[in-house]
């Protein structure tokens, strides 16, 4: 996972003023045709409905990441199969949890209850939105997407382009070689739908606008089209909308009266969409999605219907009473009124019917190769293809598969000297500890991290801060603390770690307690998903 360097060479990496690299283009992502849905929080829905009612009388790991390179920390970090979800405890509302989750092409995006957005899976094509230059093969540990806060809704095209709504009504988009930035001209959004070529914003007044997605930013090139700001086009004559969806260039809208409308998006950037038309025969509809070109609708009685291109309606698994659903081009996920999950079609595991290990589920997302479910207590479960750890944990079966749902981690915030650390590399929660990316922490502290090599192999690392020096070797579970000031520390101290030094997605990692050897105050609050690190001397001088 490390780059080879000449024998006996010492690579010195002095901290920079910013933990973000300079912008650079990234490769074009592979998109696939699936319907994308608007994910709207309960608060946004309430705001939208009230508005509608009033209107009548929403590193650089780079190529150094080796194919298939595992996490070299504790071997016991493989996930435990998911049991049936237990009832929600009385204090669940006080704990951080996920409020929405979206699966894409080898990646996952999730919204946390504090308004932050997290992602995991593949980051070779800018899918995770964490950097315009950093690329690595996989991560099951969630990484926080920068620049986003107070988010109320998320959506992904599945092909790497994603969008989010903030509480102030603004819309932000990222991926396809970009970190998040605002979509100009939107100040009253309730929901958003990111599509493969166009995207939709559902406004709080029940109207809808669309824009053409920006061109992917390619590595090492400069493109005027890629830098062009999106141009908004109103869907004229469409109002009282409570949900939007996209299937290729076909737009869909569900109105508050239960009717469904459709239109065609233009294939040219400056052209507007066609006039919406109501789909006849659909009444009292509560939710819409699409699978292989056919529209799937959920009626007020909890029954799903498949509607083909000619408008013919046929029952779809009417033996089930459904409360939520999602689909990709290959398969369908259904959540019953009892909170059970069923999967049909060309499913991610090849099996049809009930996912026996899941219960008390409120929402699902059909990624291309993996599936996701969110329980009522905000826990996210993943299963299916896991080649890039997009299910939320290392694969449990050969061939990069997860057949029994595994629980995804809750991303951990890194707070250094009182400031949230924007890191392209995640903190990795294991069974024994929390592994931290050493270089990223060193940069935030203003420390010096060195990689020492002998005969082209990494022999040891040193981390220097103030007068203290930590020396540690790859894969060892102990470190040595020495001092440049012999009056303070007369001899080196050898300290045991909870688990060995690791290597994850191109970053050298260490158990969090190692940083205490630098004289820092380091605390990890697992329940609050936060690690705090501060220099007690600096804190004292500040007061």
N-C termini distance: 43 Å
What is the share of helical residues?
Answer: under 10%
| Contiguous helical run count | 4
Overall mean pLDDT stands at: 82
> How would you describe the shape?
elongated
Strand order of the largest sheet: 1-35-36-37-38-39
* Unreliable stretches covering 5 or more consecutive residues: 1-36, 39-93
Query: Can you count the beta strands?
Result: 43
Strand content: 35-45%
Biggest sheet: strands, sense, closure?
Answer: 6 strands, antiparallel
Describe the structure.
The strands form ten sheets. A six-stranded antiparallel sheet has the order 1-35-36-37-38-39. Strands 2-15-16-17-18 form a five-stranded antiparallel sheet. Strand 33 (428-429) and strand 34 form a beta hairpin. The chain has 543 residues and is mainly beta. The chain is elongated, with a radius of gyration of 25 Å. The longest helix has 15 residues, at 42-56.
What brief labels describe this structure?
543 residues, mainly beta, six-stranded antiparallel beta sheet, five-stranded antiparallel beta sheet, 43 strands
Brief rundown of the structure:
This protein is mainly beta and 543 residues long.
How does the SSE layout of this entry go?
Elements: E1 10-14, E2 36-37, H1 42-56, E3 98-103, E4 107-112, E5 117-121, E6 143-144, E7 151-156, E8 161-166, E9 171-175, E10 181-182, E11 189-194, E12 198-203, E13 208-212, H2 224-227, E14 233-234, E15 241-247, E16 250-255, E17 260-264, E18 277-278, E19 285-291, E20 294-299, E21 304-307, E22 313-316, E23 322-327, E24 331-336, E25 341-345, E26 353-354, E27 361-366, E28 370-375, E29 380-385, E30 401-407, E31 413-416, E32 419-420, E33 428-429, E34 434-437, H3 438-445, E35 448-454, E36 457-465, E37 468-472, E38 478-483, E39 493-496, E40 502-504, E41 507-511, E42 520-525, E43 530-535, H4 536-542
Parallel strand pairs: 31-43
Antiparallel strand pairs: 1-35, 2-15, 3-4, 4-5, 5-6, 7-8, 8-9, 9-10, 11-12, 12-13, 13-14, 15-16, 16-17, 17-18, 19-20, 20-21, 21-22, 23-24, 24-25, 25-26, 27-28, 28-29, 29-30, 31-32, 33-34, 34-41, 35-36, 36-37, 37-38, 38-39, 40-41, 42-43
């Amino acid at each position: 996972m490390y780059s080879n360097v000449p024998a006996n060479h010492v690579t010195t990496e002095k901290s920079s003023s910013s933990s973000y690299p300079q912008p650079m283009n990234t490769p074009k992502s592979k998109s696939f045709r699936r319907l994308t849905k608007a994910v709207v929080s309960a608060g946004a829905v309430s705001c939208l409905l009230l508005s509608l009612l009033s209107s009548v009388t929403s590193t650089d790991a780079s190529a150094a990441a080796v194919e298939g390179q595992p996490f070299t920390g504790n071997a016991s970090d493989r996930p435990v199969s998911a049991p049936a979800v237990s009832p929600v405890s009385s204090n669940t509302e006080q704990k951080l949890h996920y409020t929405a989750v979206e699966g894409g092409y080898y990646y996952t995006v999730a919204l946390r209850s504090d308004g932050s957005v997290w992602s995991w899976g593949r980051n070779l094509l800018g899918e995770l939105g964490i950097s315009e230059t950093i690329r690595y093969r996989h991560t099951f540990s969630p990484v926080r997407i920068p620049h986003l806060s107070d988010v109320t809704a998320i959506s992904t095209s599945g092909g790497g382009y994603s969008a989010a709504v903030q509480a102030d009504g603004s819309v932000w988009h990222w991926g396809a070689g970009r970190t998040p930035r605002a979509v100009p001209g939107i100040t009253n959004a309730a929901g958003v739908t990111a599509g493969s070529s166009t995207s939709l914003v559902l406004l709080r007044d029940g109207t809808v606008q669309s824009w053409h997605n920006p061109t992917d930013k390619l590595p090492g090139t400069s493109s005027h089209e890629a830098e062009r700001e999106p141009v908004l086009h109103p869907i004229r004559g469409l109002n009282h909308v409570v949900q939007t969806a996209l299937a290729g260039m076909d737009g869909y809208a569900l109105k508050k009266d239960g009717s469904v409308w459709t239109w065609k998006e233009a294939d040219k950037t400056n052209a507007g969409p066609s006039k919406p038309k109501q789909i006849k025969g659909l009444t009292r509809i509560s939710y819409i999605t699409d699978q292989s070109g056919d529209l799937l609708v959920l009626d007020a009685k909890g029954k799903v219907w498949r509607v083909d291109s000619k408008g013919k309606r046929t029952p779809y698994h009417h033996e089930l009473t459904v409360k939520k659903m999602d689909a990709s081009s290959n398969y369908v996920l259904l959540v019953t009124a009892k909170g059970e999950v069923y999967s049909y079609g060309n499913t991610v595991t090849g099996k049809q019917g009930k996912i026996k290990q899941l219960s008390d589920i409120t929402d699902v997302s059909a990624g291309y190769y993996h599936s996701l479910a969110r329980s009522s207590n905000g826990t996210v479960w993943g299963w299916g293809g896991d080649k890039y750890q997009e299910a939320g944990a290392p694969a449990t079966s050969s061939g990069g598969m997860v057949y029994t749902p595994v629980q995804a981690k809750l991303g951990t915030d890194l707070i250094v000297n009182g400031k949230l650390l924007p890191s392209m590399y995640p903190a990795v929660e294991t069974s024994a500890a929390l592994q931290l990316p050493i270089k990223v922490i060193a940069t935030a502290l203003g420390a010096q991290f060195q990689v020492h090599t002998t005969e082209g192999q990494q022999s040891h690392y040193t981390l220097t801060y103030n007068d203290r020096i930590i020396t540690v070797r790859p894969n060892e579970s102990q470190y040595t603390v020495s001092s440049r000031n012999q009056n303070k520390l007369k001899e080196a101290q050898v300290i045991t770690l909870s688990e060995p030094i690791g290597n994850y997605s191109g970053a050298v990692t260490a158990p969090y307690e190692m940083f205490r050897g630098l004289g820092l105050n380091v605390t990890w609050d697992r329940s609050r998903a936060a690690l705090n690190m501060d220099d007690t001397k600096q804190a004292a001088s500040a007061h």
